[in-house]
Amino acid sequence: MTFYKALAIGLLFSGVAPAIWSAPRIPISDTEVIEHLPRGTDPAQQEFRALRSRLAASPNDMLLALTLARRYISQSRVEGDPRYLGYAQAALAPWYDKSDPPAEVRVMRATLLQSTHQFPASLRDLDAVVKADPHNAQAWLTKATVLQVMGEYRPAAQSCNALRSLAPVLITITCLSNVASLNGQAHQSYAHLKSALAMAPGADPGIRIWVTTLLAEMAQRLGQFPAAEEHFKTALALDDADSYLLGAYADFLLDQKRPGEVIRLLKDKTRVDALLLRYALALTSQPADNRAAADQIALLNSRFAAAMLRGDTVHQREQARFELQLMHRAPFALQLAQRNWAVQKEPADARIFLEAALVANDKAAAAPVLDWLKKTRLEDHAINALALKFAVGA
């Protein structure tokens, strides 16, 4: 999920964040339920209808179009449904393809480009915005997010620093701490961010979820597992969990050998590929669920096959994990991890790369990631243990 991984928190000042993309579902039997359509009485759907009706009457009302697009992106986060991101783009159609659209549209376009891993195009838009308006806080924050996902920590920190006079203190500290935690300053960053959150009791719930999730991930990387779990549970209790938070907590539980809790957490959330993957991994750890696991693996296989036919590369991290841990095809998993590494460099990307190289017994392939770990000084309990295995085998 990629998200994304990060934590892609675009449009934060509007209280929304991009979702984990999900491949179209291909039915594996005549009895499979393909889709549960939103109820017409759903308040969100009613709001969308009202906004669409108003926009149809005034198609060049940019502020209205931006409002609808933001709501669509917010709903994509809630439901894990990438179609809402397409709807967001459609709402911005009069301006979306322009070479120099208004700044608000350009920042939103950058966020949508980020969601499909078109990072260079996203950065071009963001660079243009901050060049024209150095006070655009959302553009700086989104730029920091994109650069962090790409593993470009120094320019990411520079973008965070630009927020000092533009954004609330908690957002600036979160941006800086998140980058520094991946670059040799994990303990200091965790303590600093934890203190900053404690000093902002009135922060918006969406921001608190973002910060608390990051604290959970930092604590997990540091091997402080009780603290990580406490942060995850706090984030889950703040509001309806989005796909990123659910996936992150599921990964934590899987690492802690608690598959039963993953099954309960995700059994109704498998519409999103990244969550279905974790659900299937949990099922395979439960002998009594072998048949259910086989069904979910077949479904995942069909989804990833469809994505490959479309040339969709957004899911390569998840697909590499699927190939390694569920299909046991380490060489192919390594190929996918290598392709993914060429695009994004988050801790989860490094981990699946090293895991695949280790199982494939291909130490040479792991060299780029091992070199990157030395350069960044990443402090990650699981990844550092993997790196040691390559050193022992030297």
Would you kindly provide a written description of the structure presented here, covering whatever features stand out?
This protein has 394 residues and is an all-alpha fold. Among the domains are: 1-26 and 40-167, Tetratricopeptide repeat domain (Serine Threonine Protein Phosphatase 5, Tetratricopeptide repeat, Alpha Horseshoe), CATH 1.25.40.10; 174-244, Serine Threonine Protein Phosphatase 5, Tetratricopeptide repeat, CATH 1.25.40. It has 21 helices and no strands. Helix 19 runs parallel beside helix 21. The model is unreliable at 1-10 and 14-35 (pLDDT under 50).
Tags for this entry?
394 residues, mainly alpha, Serine Threonine Protein Phosphatase 5, Tetratricopeptide repeat
In short:
This protein is mainly alpha-helical and 394 residues long. 68% of the residues lie in helices and 0% in strands. Among the domains are: 1-26 and 40-167, Serine Threonine Protein Phosphatase 5, Tetratricopeptide repeat, CATH 1.25.40.10; 174-244, Serine Threonine Protein Phosphatase 5, Tetratricopeptide repeat (Alpha Horseshoe), CATH 1.25.40.
